[in-house]
Amino acid sequence: MKLNQLRDNRGAHVAATRVGRGSGSGKGKTCGRGVKGQKSRKGVAINGFEGGQMPLFMRLPKRGFRNPRAKRYNELTVARLTHAIKKGALKADTTINENMLIKSGIIKRLYDGVRLIGGGAIDTPLSLDITSASSQVVKAIEVAGGKVSVRVASEKKKARPQQKKTAEKTDTQETDKETGTTAEKPPEKTLEAEASGASESGGAEDAPTPSDPSSDASTEKPSGDNQS
Fold this sequence. Notes:
By secondary structure, the protein is an alpha/beta fold. It has helices at residues 56-59, 78-87, 98-103, 135-143, 191-206, 213-219, 224-227, and strands at 74-77, 95-97, 114-117, 127-130, 132-133, 147-150, 173-175, 182-184.
């Protein structure tokens, strides 16, 4: 092997297509771009343009988002871990960490850490040192006599607030604490209603009683014309 014999592997470097070198090459006069038009010019990028109508990427609905700070864990099931111990790839009497899992071939990539999840039974006491684990797996290992040291605590999902099944009580109802029955509250009198009621009652008392028109006519004195 000499320096002048060094070269890339076959297919590692692909030569660029030579255009504009005669019609016999197939990429001659128009270089494979066709005749005229916007696409035959340089500096044109028509990505997703549909002639002015609403493009497809704007017609489709968008839902959700991708968290840029989200952690990606390599999930490991309990069944796979116990199978590796029975097979002899791991020793149960030692503390199992993430580097041992990679060396034994149980996992290929570490990503942001290893998360141990359910999916199997634990019979032997194990000692684990991993990034994260579900709360149920941690309890199962502790019940079996093992120990799990976790660097990232498992987050509990917040429960959704339950909707009230009982109908809301109106302002005109009140409940009795002892019997639990509802009763209609008497309508509350406002100051304006009380004032108007008082004025009506006072006006009725002060108003004079109407007189009998026949008695008034009999008591009237005769006028001078009648006397004459």
